[in-house]
């Protein structure tokens, strides 16, 4: 299928109406339905949504590790059909080097992500699945600041899954909020119009920052509370699992 159409050439990364259905013992499970998003080069997107809605599935389709049942992903005018060196992935819940501390693992992964490959080709798109989810808050703060600095320097396009509302607002140009599954899709997109470089201490008292934060909390806790789970005030839905990271150098 040739998805290189003229009207799509303007968007750098085009997630073009993807749906995916998995076969299961209980019959077909439609996990994603008509997910569409056009991403600009150098944009930082956070993907946020309740556990199990399909965030990792979206990321794996962009990575070329899963094929959508309908629709597809177009990067710089070419359809993504397999993993490639233009996309670096930090997986959820994997340990890159089990003997290293969590901090060292994340540091290593981020260093790897931003390092030039041997061919001097920089990775263009960084796909990160809850990369800092298991870190203590001070280390996490440090990693977020490093990520912002590096991204400002290299202008990589980033799609990051997070459960942390403050992290999403601090880092993102846009926060993409997914509805609950099955048949999950993009519920709302919030533009984060805050100047860069961003400083967390200054932003903590910034009414615009706090407005954005409240919008995401409202989406997650009022409009899209997980079925069967009462709304809570806990923004960070980390499951407390062992920290972990893995890196595929595509
Ligand atoms: N290969 C597969 N076969 C069947 N079902 C799958 C498969 N992969 C994912 N799923 C189901 O798709 C849904 C979405 O899974 P996914 O891992 O993308 O969610 P998630 O939003 O990343 O969740 P979390 O926040 O817990 O990481 C889940 O119900 C999961 O069980
Ligand atoms: Mg996931």
From TrEMBL:
SMART domains: AAA. Keywords: ATP-binding, Cell membrane, Membrane, Nucleotide-binding, Transport. This is Nitrate transport protein nasD. The keyword Nucleotide-binding applies. Residues 225-250 are annotated as: Disordered. It is found in: Cell membrane. One of its GO terms (molecular function) is ATP binding. Coiled coil: none annotated. Belongs to the ABC transporter superfamily. GO terms for cellular component: plasma membrane. It is a peripheral membrane protein. Residues 13-205 form the ABC transporter domain. It holds the Pfam family ABC_tran. The lineage of its organism: Bacteria, Pseudomonadati, Pseudomonadota, Gammaproteobacteria, sulfur-oxidizing symbionts. The keyword Nucleus does not apply.
């Amino acid at each position: 299928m040739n998805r290189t159409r003229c009207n799509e050439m303007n968007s750098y990364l085009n997630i073009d109406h993807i749906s995916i259905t998995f076969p299961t013992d209980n019959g077909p499970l439609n996990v994603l339905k008509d997910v569409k998003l056009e991403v600009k080069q150098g944009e930082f997107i956070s993907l946020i949504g309740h556990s199990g809605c399909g965030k990792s599935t979206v990321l794996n389709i962009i990575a070329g590790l899963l094929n959508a049942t309908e629709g597809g992903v177009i990067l710089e005018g070419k359809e993504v059909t397999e993993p490639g060196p233009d996309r670096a992935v930090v997986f959820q819940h994997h340990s890159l080097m089990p003997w290293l501390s969590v901090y060292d693992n994340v540091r290593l992964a981020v260093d790897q992500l931003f390092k030039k490959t041997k061919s001097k080709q920089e990775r263009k798109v960084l796909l990160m699945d809850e990369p800092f989810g298991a870190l203590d808050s001070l280390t996490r703060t440090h990693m977020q600041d490093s990520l912002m600095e590096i991204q400002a320097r290299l202008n990589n396009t980033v799609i990051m899954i997070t459960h942390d509302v403050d992290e999403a607002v601090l880092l993102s140009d846009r926060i993409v909020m997914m509805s609950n599954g099955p048949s999950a899709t993009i519920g709302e997109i919030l533009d984060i119009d805050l100047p860069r470089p961003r400083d967390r201490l200054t932003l903590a008292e910034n009414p615009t920052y706090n407005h954005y934060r409240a919008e995401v909390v409202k989406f997650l806790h009022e409009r899209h509370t997980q079925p069967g789970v009462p709304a809570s005030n806990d923004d960070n839905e980390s499951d407390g699992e062992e920290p972990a990271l893995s890196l595929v150098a595509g």
